[in-house]
Amino acid sequence: MNESGLNPMVQDEYRIDQAEGLRRMRARKPIKVIAIASGKGGVGKTNIAVNLAVALAQQGAKPLLFDADLGLGNVDVLLGLSPRYNLSHVISGEKSMEEVLITGPWNIRILPAASGVAQMANLDTQSQANLIQGIGDLSLDMDYLLIDLPAGIAGDVLTFSQAAQEVLVVLSNEPASITDAYALIKVLSRNHGVRRFKVLPNMVRDRREGDALFQRIAKVADGFLDVTLEQIGSVPLDPALRAAVRSQKAVVEMYPDAPVSRALQDLAMAVERWPHAYNASGHMAFFMERLLMKHPEISI
């Protein structure tokens, strides 16, 4: 017997069981899957996705950034990266998901999309599900999957948004951006059962403009749609972002004290406070479960 009152052999077995229990608990650790969307291009959506990933990593999280603009990806371009392979090589069977993974600033992991590959922009739902299954099978420690969606309401946008835990809609203070963001929310809610949306006004002059922009879209949505919209701050128009883009750097890394960086750091802290999905059984299981519920024709 020892000070714990346990036989040493029993205590060793207890430690082994405890370690195995911790290992299993970590293996089941749910991740937050966030689809970052916009009704139209040019609103800064990919910059939000890239800098959110870096800001989360700066706070100690382990994000995986999935460039889901499969035929016209540019996450790698924004960060000055030159991947040898991309997701088109996974779809073709030439490479595994692990082999196309690249590492960006602050050790964020990135799944790069193809650029200028037409067939990647028109993947069927089964192929999209296979990609998600491949991400779920990665032996990768991650807290977040950030999905940088293509702009608009194409099939891949709808598929990934339906299954994500959170849909973050980025918009700017332009009539077309507001109209198209509303159209995206309308299609996802009426046709695909997505009821909750986070809304992020981007490239605004100040917080008041951001609040007013959110109120404009929320007022219309409240009148015609059965949805819940939540504003999660706003991001100012800041020349520091343009300078960072020219340098192919994340602005939160290159100019951490700039107003745009502070807003993005606040966004990352807000995201950290979002609850996990109630039905998250671990890794990507809940994501695939929801995808299969929406698309019973998928086989995995």
From TrEMBL:
Record-linked Pfam families: ParA
GO cellular component: cytoplasmic side of plasma membrane; cytosol
Entry keyword set: ATP-binding, Nucleotide-binding
GO molecular function: ATP binding; ATP hydrolysis activity
Record's keyword annotation contains Chaperone: no
CDD domains: FlhG-like
GO biological process, alphabetically ordered: negative regulation of cell division
Keyword ATP-binding in record: yes
PANTHER family in UniProt: CELLULOSE BIOSYNTHESIS PROTEIN BCSQ-RELATED, SEPTUM SITE-DETERMINING PROTEIN MIND HOMOLOG, CHLOROPLASTIC-RELATED
Protein name per Swiss-Prot or TrEMBL: Cobyrinic acid a,c-diamide synthase
Species annotation: Acidithiobacillus thiooxidans ATCC 19377
Gene: ylxH
